[in-house]
Amino acid sequence: MGKGTAAAYMAGNAILYHADFLDVAGDMENSSVDMVFTDPPFELTGGGMKNGKLNYEGGEVFSNCGFSTEHIAFGRWIPEVYRILKNERYFYVMSNDRNIFPIHTACMDSGFTFCELLVMDKKMTVPSSYYPKRAEFIAMYRKGGYRKLRFTGSTVLEARLPRGRDKRHPTEKPVPMIEHLVRCSTLEGEVCLDPFMGSCPVGEACIKTKRRFIGAEIERKWFEASQDRIREADSNR
């Protein structure tokens, strides 16, 4: 199923596809987007605590959070991101500590240049076999040469995760943090892609910063949640 057959929602500067990103990517032109930011599906801790240690199990991703998405090998979709991204443009990918290494390998194998490892300070901790975890990571890569833009702040991003009624998705990342990275990495009117958009915080950040957005989401419940979010963001411009 390519873009021609995928269910799509268009509003203002946003296009959302209810489809597997790999199907949508097949119809996207080479070097056609200015930035990619995504929080991809990957295996999380499963099985709880046993003998004082956290168990790490394979299988479904986010199986305890209402997801059915299967893990997609980083080596399958990251080369497509590289192909679609313009030269001298930036790719940001969220990760936990366990997946940062295979993500990095897939990015380097695809031709990306490593730029920075950003730390998202969540201001809260979760249990671990060793030190309680308070951070997630955003690996930043570049395709081609360096593009001089105004990179402000630091490599540590303090971020309050959405909670309560503000939380639309189990692993949603804060819109203000994404807005900051979008402003640092693109110009107004440029195009940002999220291959795994979830409830579409990246799309909201793009609308608020006057960028265009393309997103793909395979699960219907999150595709519908994304439509609601884009409608609200577009009406509040």
Detailed description of the structure:
The protein has helices at 21-25, 74-84, 100-110, 175-185, 201-208, 220-235, and strands at residues 7-11, 14-18, 33-38, 49-50, 53-54, 85-95, 113-126, 133-143, 156-158, 191-194, 212-217. The strands form two sheets. The protein has a nine-stranded mixed β-sheet with strand order 1-2-11-10-3-6-8-7-9, with helices on both faces. Strands 4-5 form a two-stranded antiparallel ribbon. 36% of the residues are buried. Mean pLDDT is 85; it is low at 45-69. The radius of gyration is 17 Å and the shape is globular. It has 237 residues and is of the alpha/beta class.
Outline the secondary-structure elements:
Layout: E1 7-11, E2 14-18, H1 21-25, E3 33-38, E4 49-50, E5 53-54, H2 74-84, E6 85-95, H3 100-110, E7 113-126, E8 133-143, E9 156-158, H4 175-185, E10 191-194, H5 201-208, E11 212-217, H6 220-235
Helix pairs in contact: 2-3, 4-5, 5-6
